[in-house]
């Protein structure tokens, strides 16, 4: 992508592409970073989801969807393989990152260039002590071993025009046939991925017209993608945003001295994707449609070090910024696929804190509809939104300001039907598609800016709920 060369401007260290962990693969990459003796240490990782309360029998699984491994040709600054073998230091950074950020699952989405040239069993990235997760004797995932916690379920997948995930095998045929299948936009070929046990998502939703999306019929779409957020061409042509707004802000931020909490460069980069949200709302009127945050991590865009000595787009840093939260009956392949396929999920920008206590549902006298489900519209049908707090918020830090809204989408119009800073319960006057948003002014991170660019502290999206249809 052109953004790769533009974002080399962000290098404010020695310009090297390796993180401090390269010098010692056994280094403690999840150690906290002190930015000031008067501040609590900045947590470079995330708390495990076992600490999120079970809700009506559903546990929570956090994961990354849209991520590139050493089997994407453009990963690892283009040096994804060395002598035909995986770039082991880059792979080690990836593995460290999913453990440091306590991901329950990662859905790889490698480009067919190189991915299709390797045996499918290589896509599981299995190393000694990892576990092969089988279904009927066929490997469907690997469980990456972590020193702390149960480890991370890793699912192979691909990304080109479309994004089939949770694959169990390559498409049938020789290597040329694989490349052709992975590069298709043909709904018939997409169905073959489903027949093999996968789901077919659409990345970079802004590049698709609503008519093309309806004709294709994806199992889910991206409502935010980091590369789209920062690529000047995509921003201007497809998202209606200032071309170099993200880059300019990030450059200013990265040159601060002394360096603030480097992960907070996300505050300078981040803007919502209005085109993607409009596409999502339009599809939600047609039927259930999971909305996904696409991390799109490659370690190929910001090779220079930020103030913490780690490259700007490290796997750890990008996974620390946002993720997808699924409501599951079990954290295993079946439970994860069921939740994603049915849209029983919410998406959170945990760069601003892990949301604790979030819930959205619709209740009638007879039933409770979860996110992704359909409820019958009847007298007394009520939407309930529980406003989350920031998990592990240090009491010495300023309190964030949180604002909740319940939105209704109907006949092409998105309207706010309720809002406030406390839990909401509203009786629904009419049918429609209902979803919730939680916005936050993250004042609790302002001290880590050390007085630099305080205007970065503004209201931003924190949580997108899954949608509930009421009809």
Question: Describe it for me?
Answer:
The chain has 471 residues and is of the alpha+beta class. It has one domain (2-17, 38-353): TIM Barrel. Helix content is 21%, strand content 26%. It has helices at 2-6, 88-100, 112-115, 175-182, 187-195, 210-216, 226-230, 232-237, 245-254, 265-269, 274-286, 315-321, 333-341; strands at residues 59-67, 81-82, 85-86, 105-108, 131-135, 138-144, 152-155, 163-165, 199-202, 220-225, 291-297, 323-328, 345-348, 355-356, 359-363, 368-369, 374-375, 382-386, 389-390, 401-410, 413-420, 424-427, 432-441, 460-465, 468-470. The chain has a 17-stranded mixed sheet that branches. Strand 5 and strand 6 form a beta hairpin. The longest helix has 13 residues, at 88-100. The radius of gyration is 21 Å and the shape is globular. Mean pLDDT is 89; it is low at 1-31.
Number of domains: 1
| Main beta-sheet annotation | 17 strands, mixed
Shape: globular
Kindly provide the radius of gyration, computed on alpha-carbon positions and rounded to a whole number of angstroms.
Answer: 21 Å
Helix percent band: 10-25%
The CATH architecture category equals Alpha-Beta Barrel
Spans of at least 5 consecutive residues whose pLDDT stays below 50 are 1-31
User: What's the rounded overall pLDDT mean?
Assistant: 89
| β-sheet strand percentage | 25-35%
What CATH calls the topology is TIM Barrel
Q: What is the quaternary state of this protein?
A: single chain
- CATH level 4 superfamily: Metal-dependent hydrolases
Which class in CATH terms? Alpha Beta
Q: Distance between the terminal alpha carbons, to the nearest Å?
A: 43 Å
Total beta strand runs: 25
Total helical elements: 13
Structural class assignment: alpha+beta
């Amino acid at each position: 992508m052109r953004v790769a060369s533009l974002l080399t401007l962000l290098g404010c260290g020695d310009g090297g592409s390796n993180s401090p962990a390269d010098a010692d693969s056994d280094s403690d990459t999840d150690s906290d970073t002190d930015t000031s003796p008067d501040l609590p240490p900045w947590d470079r990782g995330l708390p495990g989801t076992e600490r999120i309360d079970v809700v009506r029998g559903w546990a929570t699984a956090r994961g990354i969807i849209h991520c590139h491994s050493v089997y994407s040709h453009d990963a690892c600054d283009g040096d994804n393989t060395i002598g035909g073998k995986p770039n082991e230091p880059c792979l080690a950074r990836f593995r460290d990152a999913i453990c440091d950020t306590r991901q329950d699952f990662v859905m790889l989405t490698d480009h067919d260039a190189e991915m299709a040239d390797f045996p499918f069993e290589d896509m599981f990235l299995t190393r000694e002590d990892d576990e092969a997760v089988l279904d009927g004797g066929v490997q469907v995932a690997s469980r990456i071993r972590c020193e702390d916690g149960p480890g991370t379920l890793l699912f192979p997948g691909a990304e080109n025009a479309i994004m089939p995930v949770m694959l169990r095998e390559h498409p049938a045929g020789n290597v040329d046939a694989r490349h052709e299948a992975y590069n298709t936009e043909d709904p018939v070929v997409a169905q073959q991925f489903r027949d093999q046990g996968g789901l077919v998502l659409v990345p970079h939703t802004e590049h698709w017209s609503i008519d093309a999306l309806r004709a294709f019929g994806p199992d889910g779409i991206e409502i935010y993608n980091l590369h789209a957020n920062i690529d000047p061409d995509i921003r201007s042509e497809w998202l209606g945003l200032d071309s170099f707004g993200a880059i300019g802000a990030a450059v200013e931020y990265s040159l601060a001295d002394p360096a603030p909490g480097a992960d907070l460069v996300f505050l300078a980069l981040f803007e919502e994707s209005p085109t993607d949200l409009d596409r999502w709302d339009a599809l939600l009127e047609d039927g259930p449609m999971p909305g996904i945050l696409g991390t799109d991590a490659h370690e190929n865009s910001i090779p220079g070090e930020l103030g913490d000595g780690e490259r700007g787009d490290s796997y750890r840093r990008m996974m620390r910024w946002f993720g997808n939260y699924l409501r599951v009956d079990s954290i295993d392949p079946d439970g994860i696929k069921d939740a994603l396929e049915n849209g029983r999920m919410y998406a959170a920008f945990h760069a601003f804190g892990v949301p604790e206590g979030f819930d959205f549902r619709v209740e009638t006298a007879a039933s409770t509809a979860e996110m992704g489900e359909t409820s019958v519209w009847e007298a007394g049908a009520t939407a309930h939104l529980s406003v989350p707090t920031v998990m592990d918020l240090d009491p010495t830090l300023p309190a964030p300001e949180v604002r909740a809204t319940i939105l209704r989408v109907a006949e092409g119009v998105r309207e706010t039907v309720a809002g406030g800073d406390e839990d909401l319960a509203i009786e629904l006057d009419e049918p429609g598609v209902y979803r919730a948003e939680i916005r936050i002014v993250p004042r609790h991170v302002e001290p880590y800016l050390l007085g630099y660019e305080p205007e970065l502290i503004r209201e931003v999206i924190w949580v997108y709920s899954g949608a509930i249809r009421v009809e």
